[in-house]
Amino acid sequence: MDDLTDRGGQTDTIDKENSVYKALKILSTLGELSFQANGEARLSELVGRTGYARPTVHRLLTTMKQCGFVSQTASGPYRFGPEFMLVAQQAFGKADIRRMALPSMANLSHQSGYTVHLGVRDGSEVVYIDKREPPQGLHISSAIGQRRPLQFTALGKAILAWAPIETSRECLAKPWQQRTKNSLPSAEAVIAQFSDIRQRGYAIDNEESDLGFRCVAAPLLTHGHVPVAAISLTTLSAQVSDTELEGMGQKIARTAREISNSLGGGSQ
After folding, report:
1. Across the strands, what pairs with 122?
2. Residues of the chain with CATH 3.30.450.40
3. Which of 42, 83, 193, 202 is the most buried (most CB within 10 A)?
4. Quick one: fold of 89-263?
5. SS3 for the chain, per residue?
6. CA-to-CA distance for 158 and 255, rounded, in angstroms?
7. Contact between 150 and 126 (Cβ < 8 Å)
């Protein structure tokens, strides 16, 4: 038992043999380990780091998996589940994300000359919760509160690519109606892009949501690589080459990493 003194001078004790304490310790350790290993950690690593017996760790992970707080990949490693992501989004509310992202968004818009959007997932849609336009140059006729299907936007694909695959599949299980001739035709086509998105650090919308516009986006990550939002750069298709789009992608990924650091998420 450890003694802890709160700010009011009251002394409480923590029972480290309590199952709730152990479960929370495992979650914390999962975050520490997954930060170093692409968002995942193996059972043996969790046992070694926590010092708990293997059957205890496995039993608590099974319970947390049933409750959606952790998920398990086909090859065995564990990662945070959809319920943990929901709690993280609630902890880092929209107002906090906007406040922490605003300076970097404004700077990026000013330097690049492009419009920057900040979006969060709401069910199977992405919602714009902030927007910054350059003092000069192209202004995009989008609006805060505007919604788009996740699968057709760079913002949505950036969030889904870092989410647990169960969450992504659930979000993509809605009726499919392509917005443009460039929209991806199926959930599997979207999921097939995730590996490339994670590898390069950003997602691309190549006129998939709206004809005439190209967009790049990168996720904002909290502890354990949990995606709570994404930021994007948008421009007219006719004004950007593939090489220039790649440069935009590198800028948005770099800015997203800076914001993620302030959220405790570290690098992508």
Report:
1. 125
2. 89-263
3. 202
4. Beta-Lactamase (3.30.450)
5. CEEEECCCCCEEEECCCCHHHHHHHHHHHHHHHHHHCCCCECHHHHHHHHCCCHHHHHHHHHHHHHCCCEEECCCCCEEECHHHHHHHHHHCCHHHHHHHHHHHHHHHHHHHCCEEEEEEEECCEEEEEEEECCCCCCCCCCCCCCEEEHHHCHHHHHHHHHCCHHHHHHHCCCCCCCCCCCCCCCHHHHHCCHHHHHHHCCEEEECCCCCCEEEEEEEEEECCCEEEEEEEEEEEHHHCCHHHHHHHHHHHHHHHHHHHHHHECCCC
6. 14
7. yes
Q: How large is the average pLDDT for residues 61-71?
A: 90
Domain 2-80 has CATH 2.30.30.90: no
* pLDDT tens profile 235-266: 999 989 999 999 999 999 999 999 998 887 66
> Cα(226)–Cα(265) distance, rounded to whole angstroms?
7
Rounded CA-CA distance 81/85 in Å is 6
Tell me the one-letter amino acid at 119.
Answer: G
- pLDDT score recorded for residue 11: 45
The pTM (predicted TM-score) of the whole model is 0.68
CA–CA gap between residue 117 and residue 256 (Å, rounded)? 12
**Structure-token match 């708990």, residue found:** 52
pLDDT digits 0-9 by tens, 146-200:
889 999 999 999 999 999 888 899 999 988 889 999 999 999 999 999 999 999 9
